[in-house]
Write a structure and sequence with these properties.
alpha/beta; binds 5-phosphoarabinonic acid; globular; five-stranded parallel β-sheet; 2 domains; four-stranded parallel β-sheet
Length: 388
């Protein structure tokens, strides 16, 4: 991957994008790259500017100024205000520090949008998000793969895992297809009193996977008053936060637990010899990763005891191949659920509505009617302001 090689020569990468143009990158990086990536000598450092929060943008700039920095703008539409505003700001800061547009890469639609015309005018590098691939389905395009490659992830393994999953899901009858099963379960529960779906991986490396899935699921199936609400959870942390609610609160959720059989490293606990710690002797010589797996099983058992529906996904290990497979599986499952729900899983009119109101409020040409409508609707909300 040529762009990945070019990027890997930088000391820092600032990636600007939001939603489907950001979450896939964060998910891949967390799952496959060393933890605490930006600590230590390793380069490039990676910073994602998604939320247009001035404190976050300023903090990123503080960390990259003076370093050889590449700016990546990722936007399928080439229009999103959160992305464009921060792109403009980082670009101007870089220009003031003598860093030219040659250090910029845009990843965008092949024809439309501001990023495309910017690349044509300035000669900045550009890559394509295929028009047929929606933002939240774009992680396996340049959108997610380029920075992952630059930072050292095995992109070929990710793609081959996705390809293997694609073949596996196509090879048998639909009734034996596990992605169709999970889609059907999600659909049936959503229309019979369980309008929420919890994804609970038992691995820190998959925490962002839940975040990525929440967008994929929420934006794909939340249409026409149907769908179900995705809930991100992380085992074992949420055993000590949410499992009380899950087992004894309302029976309104389907639970999908992802267990990773073999973690990237294993930790064996020391033998307990102190008298004062004797009650902990059951932990002597046990493995931490093994314990995490038992906790996943315990949560599944507790949920079943409470008559809650549980789906168990077992990953032998988390690497490029298994992650690529998992991504494809969840994309396929989501698109299938959308079809079962008889909605279009590939559009996002609710997101576009919010974008139009923002354009209007920011004074963009041709969006004044949206600005007026948003102001009127917001006035109703403001009447209920709680002052803190
Ligand atoms: O999935 C989607 O379509 C959205 O969440 C988009 O990814 C998000 O709104 C960002 O859009 P864009 O990539 O056009 O800037």
């Amino acid at each position: 991957m040529e762009a990945g090689e070019w990027l890997s020569s930088y000391e820092a990468i600032v990636d600007v994008g939001i939603g489907g143009s950001a979450l896939g990158s964060l998910m891949l990086n967390q799952a496959l790259l060393p933890m605490y990536l930006n600590e230590g000598e390793r380069a490039p450092k990676f910073y994602l500017a998604d939320n247009p929060d001035p404190e976050k943008a300023a903090a990123i700039w503080e960390r990259v100024k003076g370093k050889k920095t590449a700016l990546i703008g990722v936007s399928k539409s080439g229009a999103t205000a959160e992305t464009m505003s921060q792109f403009l700001w980082f670009r101007s800061r870089m220009a003031e520090s003598g860093e030219p547009d040659g250090d910029i890469l845009v990843i965008t639609d092949p024809e439309g949008g501001v990023f495309r015309s910017f690349a044509a005018d300035t000669g900045a590098r550009s890559l394509v998000i295929p028009p047929s691939v929606g933002g939240r389905y774009s992680v396996l395009s340049a959108c997610g793969l380029v920075t992952a490659a630059a930072l050292g992830a095995d992109v070929r393994a990710i793609l081959s895992g996705a390809e293997m999953m694609k073949r596996f899901l196509a090879e048998d009858k639909p009734e034996n297809n596990p992605a169709i099963h999970l889609a059907a379960l999600n659909f049936l529960h959503s229309i019979s009193g369980r309008p929420m779906t919890v994804l609970m991986p038992y691995a820190n490396r998959l925490e962002m996977f839940s975040e990525w899935f929440a967008q994929l699921w929420g934006e794909s199936v939340g249409k026409d008053g149907i769908g179900s609400t995705p809930i991100r959870a992380l085992g074992a942390i949420d055993q000590h936060s949410q499992v009380q609610l899950y087992t004894a609160g309302p029976d309104d959720k389907l639970y999908t637990i992802i267990n990773v059989a073999e973690h990237g490293c294993e930790i064996e606990l020391p033998k307990v010899s102190d008298r004062s710690l004797q009650s902990l002797s059951y932990l002597s010589g046990q493995k931490l990763g093994g314990m995490l797996g038992m906790e996943a099983a315990s949560t599944a058992a507790a949920l079943v005891k409470a008559d809650r529906p549980v789906v168990w996904i077992e990953l032998a290990r988390l690497d490029g191949k298994t992650l690529g497979g998992l991504i494809f599986f969840f994309e396929y499952m989501t698109a299938t659920a959308g079809r079962l729900m008889r909605i279009n899983p590939f559009d996002q009119p609710g997101v576009e509505q919010g974008k139009r109101y923002t354009y209007g409020m920011m004074g963009r040409d041709n969006f004044s009617a949206d600005a007026a409508e948003a102001a009127e609707l917001f006035r109703r909300v403001k009447e209920n302001t709680i002052k803190a």
